[in-house]
Amino acid sequence: MKASEFEVKQPQTAIVESSERITPPDADEVRHIVLNIPDATFDYIEGQSIGVLAPAPKDFGNDTHFRLYSIASSREGEDENLAQIAVAVRRCFYIDEVSGERYPGIASNFLCDRKPGDEIKIAGPYGRQFQAPRDKNCNLLMIGIGTGIAPFRAFMKHIYRERNEWLGKVRLFYGARTGMDLLYMNKERDDMSNYYDKETFKAFETIARRPYLGEEPPIEETLMDNAQEVWSLVQDPKTYVYVAGLSSLEKKLDRVMSQMAGSEEAWQEKKKELKHQRRWQTLLYD
Fold first, then answer.
1. Hey, which residues does 242 pair with through a beta bridge?
2. Residue ranges in 140-247 assigned as alpha helix (H)
3. CATH number of the domain located at residue range(s) 6-125 in this protein
4. Which of 6, 18, 23, 209 is the most exposed place for a label (fewest CB within 10 A)?
5. How far is CA 131 from the centre of its chain?
6. Distance of alpha carbon 50 from alpha carbon 35, whole angstroms
């Protein structure tokens, strides 16, 4: 994501309040980073992102590298502190296609290396993709992979805490490479367990069979295992669908939903209807 695509002329200064690793040592490093934002005018809603401006290497061509991160806190702030927000950051690396050398991701490593008290430049918030319907009787179907769970964490806190109770069905389908990578659903950090006792909430987890080969979690199989309920929800005019994670997820969903619908044409027609009614919302990244 290029900084030129966003308004970053007047970035704000955020201060790292805390940085906690939420995956075990033998899994990919993901950190739950809480930022203190002194500016009282900083407002956001669930599903929005902040842009982080990280110092770029000398040969990068720009002074800063811009990267979007989903806000993992509800609009009431992290732990109901309006001055604080949280983001989930995976420490990333990439392989140079020419040399084959492994390089650290600029923004993710910058953030993961920050300590409490450090300052970072942020911009935004951006996007308004995920908005909970006002009617508490509506159903919420959430589908995500990896750090795509961040906006869903914010959603859950909002509908079950700030809005007291949710009467419609809430279904979360979430995939990760291993059980240890199930963010906010593992032994290091298990925020989602706060909602397991809710009558309206169910979570369906899936992990890759061969994570050591870089295999992605077969979330489409978990959806098919629950096809009757999933398709029933999609057909219900009170259901809102939220998709977050890697951009490859949408293609997977198109394939599995086409099976449920009976044909690709039938699914595309249904998807068009959901989009038109603003009941199909995505937050995808490369």
1. 142, 281
2. 150-157, 219-225, 227-235
3. 2.40.30.10
4. 209
5. 14
6. 11
Sorted by where each begins, the domain ranges of the chain are 6-125, 139-285
Residue 213: per-residue pLDDT:
46
**Residue 229: per-residue pLDDT:** 96
What architecture does CATH give domain 139-285? Answer: 3-Layer(aba) Sandwich (3.40)
Answer whether 6-125 and 139-285 agree in fold. Answer: no
Listing DSSP states for 98-139 in one string gives TT--EEE-HHHHHHHT--TT-EEEEEEEE-------S-TTSE
User: Where is mean pLDDT largest: 13-17, 90-94, 102-106, 176-180?
Assistant: 13-17
pTM for this model (two decimals): 0.85
Q: What share of the chain is helix, strand, coil (3-state, %, to 5)?
A: 30, 30, 40
Please report, as a single letter, which amino acid is at residue 172.
L
**Distant-in-sequence, close-in-space partners of 210: CB < 8 Å, separation ≥ 6:** none
* Amino acid letter for position 225: D
Residue 211 clears pLDDT 60, i.e. is over it? no
